[in-house]
Structure prediction request, 302 residues.
Amino acid sequence: MIKIDRSAEPVPTSLTMAGNVVDNERSAAQSYYTAVPAPSKTYKFKRYKEDDIVEALERLFHGKCAYCESKYIGTQKMDVEHYRPKGKVNESQTHPGYWWLALDWDNLLPSCTDCNRRRGQKIAVLEADGTIVFTDTMENAGKECAFPVSGPYRAWNSQDNLALEVPLLINPCQHDPDDHLCWHISNTKAPILLAKLLGAQPDQKGVSSIEIMGLNRFGLVNERAAVLQQIEVQVKNIYQLIDITAIMPACEARDRCLIKIGQDIDELHACYKPNRQYASMVKSYIEPHMKTLKRYLVGLLP
Prediction:
């Protein structure tokens, strides 16, 4: 998960235009939920999936899931996910859901089906001895209508102050995931996400986000491992080329090696641009090597 600047993408026109189908649905929902007596069923929103909304989310998040950074384009349809759930709240059975935010741009995120839809998953777990194992049984994971908060306050309607809520799920447009999450990547065959430690305790926003979205599910860990092992090979190849170049006499071939090392380092840096899959994990692996590689390269220059 990486921090995303939502202001980089204008609010889709369908969400701001008066009198269109989205605005009509917003008005209908307002009438539905303010009726007396209060409705017993949830309103069926449809217009949050308008084409311009989907396209804006794809541009803003580079065609990746907001939570796990998997590229969904070309493999599956993106779910338009409501950060605050629109129809109900799993942690509060009587809550009507944050229906007034169902068509609010700031509440919409792109999600892959596994992060959004609740289903059984095998989950990777870090054991006390440092080994990583997968659970024998399937555990339910997927955000669905989950929205845990810390403390007693929860907004129930549009007049309540959302700023008083303390969400326990990371919104990459509002929180910096690096403040709450870290990577365990010493085993490149099973890279897993952990909650950062705050003193002796794990960050609760990190814990909840990992558990609810299933951010260490079997298939996801395997996909991340395939990417990370490729990066591992790239890094090793650069170190090997540095070692070879270090014992070469001054010559044209050595100059070409120096150019190649510089190019390879630049390519390595590009591997964790925001549009790349699992950029957060890749950055965590590469950054400790970058200063060393650049220092070695400078030491080889004439």
Notes: The chain has two domains: 6-216, 222-300. The mean pLDDT is 95. Residues 222-300 form one domain.
